Amino acid sequence: MSKIKLITIVFVTVFVLTGCGDKKQQKKNISEIESFIYSGDYVAASVAYKVYDFVFMYYYNQYKDIDISLQKANLFSLSYYIASKETKISDEEKQEIIKMCDQIADLKNQLYSAKGFDKNGVIKYLYGISLDQFTVYSIMESVINKYKSSVEQSFEFNEQELTSYYKQNENKYKGVLIQILFYSVKDENGIPYTEDKKQQKVQYALDHIKNIKNGTDMDDLIRNESEDPAVSETGGKMQFIISEYQKEDKIYEFITNPNTKIGDMTVITDEFGIYLLRLEEYEDYDNNTEIREKIKKDYFNIAFENEMQTKSAEYELTETKTDLMETIAQGFISEEE
User: Fold this and answer.
1) Which of 2, 78, 108, 294 is deepest in the core (most CB within 10 A)?
2) Strands 42-45 and 237-241, how do they pair?
3) Same structural domain, 297 and 149
4) pLDDT tens figures, 123-134
5) Which residues have C-beta within 8 Å of that of residue 38, sequence separation ≥ 6?
């Protein structure tokens, strides 16, 4: 695997970014938020950087395991330390992040309005940290992502390794394009058809399979007969990544059946309608640019994380506050009870 070239980092202690506790939130501006967060505690430290309590709390909220959360928080903190030596974001960019975090809090507060949260409370509920801490975490993450983007531009992708990675993860990325001729099982007033009427329409769709095989254009059939209200926009085409398809229904069974080939057709029914399906093509690393770019992005992210893992051996933690982490963990358990 190609190595990411990182500029050697001198041993300079990074400025403090934290804030444990429920201090009163200040006005939403950069200096006040950062001043508030800078004054907090940390759960671990190397000679070069610290793993701050709110970063650990963010990950503990996800994993509910001290060791895993410390590992994730340490990797994030190391990535930020390295990124911040090479990459800066402007006050204007920070202000946009503050605005974005406030918007997220507003949106989440609407979604969880029944719980009676304020904006800070809903962020605490969802992410395990205060809104100000969430904002600073997002600023740190933005610095990391900006740095990653600059590294990615000079990253040398190996075609053989990309192909190998795709084959190992084919089910995650493989896409499909199908055509659908849809018939409703209800009349214009929303009244369900009788079973006899429904079976007549099923047979009508099955007859179309024979007609299509004999030369009838399926595009014309869809334009002229489909009862899907969105057909004018979609042309009866449905395109998606198989692993991201949410329902294990008859459509899923058809497209994932190892015996299904390009051009195969079937008719399936559910409570909404009757579907004549045709598999148009499978989309993968070789024939779909969007999938190929997603694979490259994921492959790079893995390479970047591996590089950070390697770097972590150079910046071994010299201090670990086990008692503080256990106290934080106990606080989460108490809240859940």
Assistant:
1) 78
2) unpaired
3) yes
4) 999 999 999 999
5) 15, 16, 17, 18, 19
- Stated pTM of the model: 0.70
In a domain, 7, yes or no: no
CA–CA dist 232, 234 (Å, integer): 6
| In contact, 295 and 165? CB cutoff 8 Å | yes
**What is the band of 337 on the pLDDT scale with cuts at 50, 70, 90?**
low
We report the CATH number of the domain holding residue 254 as: 3.10.50.40
If asked whether residues 145 and 41 sit together in one domain, one would say: yes
83 plus 143 within the same structural domain: yes
**Same domain membership, residue 150 and residue 44:** yes
Least confident of 31-35, 70-74, 92-96, 187-191: 31-35
pLDDT at residue number 38: 62
CB atoms within 10 A of CB 22: 9
The predicted structure's pLDDT at residue 98? 92
215 phi-psi bin (left φ>0, alpha ψ -120 to 50, beta other)? left
CB contact at 8 A, 52 and 44: no
CB 277 within 8 A of CB 252: no
Q: Can you give the residue range of the structural domain that contains 208?
A: 175-283
The domain tally of the chain equals 2
Q: Please tell me whether residues 158 and 296 are part of one structural domain.
A: yes
